[in-house]
Amino acid sequence: MKPIVKQLLFIFLVNIVLAFLIKGINDSVGIKNNKSALDHAIWIFTDQIGDDSWRPMRLALDHWEESQGQALIYSELLIKKNVKFQYPPTALLISKFIETNNLSVLEFSTATTFIFMFLMLAGVIGITLYSYKEYNAPPLSLMEKISVGALLTLLLFTFYPAVKAGTLGQIQVWLNAFFAIAILCYISGYETAAGILLGLMASIKPQYALFVLWGLFRGNKRLVIAMIVTGTLGLLFGIREYGLATYVDYLRGLSFLSQHGESFYSNQSFNGLAGRFFSVRYPDVFNNTKWRGYYFPPYNFWVFSFTQVTSIAILVAALWKGKNRDKVSRVADFCLMGLAATMASPIAWEHHYGILFPIIVCLWLTLWFGNGQQTKWAKVTFAACYLAAANYIPITNLLASSYLNVLQSYLFFASCGFFALLWVIKHRLPASDGITN
User: Fold this and answer.
1) What residues are paired with 273 via a beta bridge?
2) Which residues pair with 349 in a beta bridge?
3) What is the C-alpha separation between 203 and 227, in angstroms, rounded?
4) How many domains does the structure of the chain reveal?
5) Does the residue 436 lie in any domain?
6) Residue 372 maps to a domain
7) Domain containing 287: what range?
8) What mean pLDDT comes out for the span 136-142?
């Protein structure tokens, strides 16, 4: 059995044991909301998939149509009524497609969840096999390749952020698939295709438009042009359907979200971390463990300032070019930008970190097969961060009323660990062996 198969099998078994251990501890202290990643995976395959993204889209589209195109969606729904429709107007084109074709929202959500989760899996398997070959590792037999694919499947469906997006019925599963395939396209030299996928991502979540800056700083013309063309087409279709005023209103909505954020524990961002700090003194205002569907915490100067400063810092760190441009560093650089775009957002729910899975796969391949210069601490850090990111640990919510509630941000801290590893790899000295340049 090749080391790659042994490693995947080992991390899967360790993670499963840890997941059951966490579940047992949670049950012993009486925690009610105690559903592991495996529980969510079972839900996906038993068709218990929600409409978390599609419901607010439907409300927004209905509001627009009832007003005969005169409504300011974000000012009237998001800001005044706190309806959590946070997507750009372009995303409403999908809801329009569902309505025009008389599709069931839940059936559409279920079908697309399956499609895009398996597209993500295909992208991750492609990344693994391509990178493994590029790193001049011992060749794999057909059965070993099948084993790698099977183990990656098990790991994906026991990775909490990814399966949580699936059971919610989140459009995030689309973004996860786009990003995994974009990584594969980028590392295999198809930068135009990667740019198209990133452009689609930016049309749904604008923070990924930061890849345009990233590409400009690195001279990736094909990627940048493909992103701009794709994004512009989406924008033009959206303006034709909903008008320029709706996009201007969306900027008001983004400003509102950046000023308020979310203090609920599922918000794994700098903003969520800061909001939970204030929840110790003001638990009713900065809700921590109680979800409020039509509520945002009030503007707080300190929370807002902390969010802005830390977000800028993490984006600068990701956008900084660095001198080394071999393949290992380029892959780390690409993944770093994708992770930064998520972490720097004021609202980054647990399921938004589904994009971590292909990033984690790239890191694992680099640390064990692509670069002999990495130390044991890097591998230990990687393993600890993976186990934290892959699991749901609700016992940390017992700390909500104390300043130890920072531990509720375990997924965010794990992401910070991955960010640090990617940054070190990106700026390391060129590898002397083990990789094809």
Assistant:
1) none
2) 267
3) 10
4) 1
5) no
6) yes
7) 3-427
8) 89
Q: Do residues 372 and 251 touch, judged by C-beta distance below 8 A?
A: no
CA nearest neighbour of 250 among 303, 293, 299, 204: 204
pLDDT, one tens digit per residue, over 281-335 is: 999 999 999 888 889 999 999 999 999 999 999 999 999 987 777 888 899 999 9
Q: List pLDDT tens digits, range 230-249.
A: 999 999 999 999 999 999 99
pLDDT in tens, 13-24: 999 999 999 999
Rounded Cα gap, residues 150 and 171, in angstroms: 25
Q: Which amino acid is at 308?
A: Q
> Which long-range contacts (C-beta less than 8 Å, at least 24 apart) are formed by 176-179?
176/116, 176/117, 176/120, 176/354, 176/355, 176/357, 176/358, 177/116, 177/117, 177/119, 177/120, 177/123, 179/338, 179/355, 179/358
Any residues with CB less than 8 A from the CB of 62 and at least 6 apart, and which?
Answer: none
Q: Residue 179 and residue 357: Cα distance in Å, rounded?
A: 10
Query: What is the residue-wise DSSP string for 219-276?
Result: T-HHHHHHHHHHHHHHHHHHHHHH-HHHHHHHHHHHHHHHHH---STTB-SHHHHHHH
Q: How many residues does the chain have?
A: 437
In the predicted model, what is the mean pLDDT of residues 162-168?
95
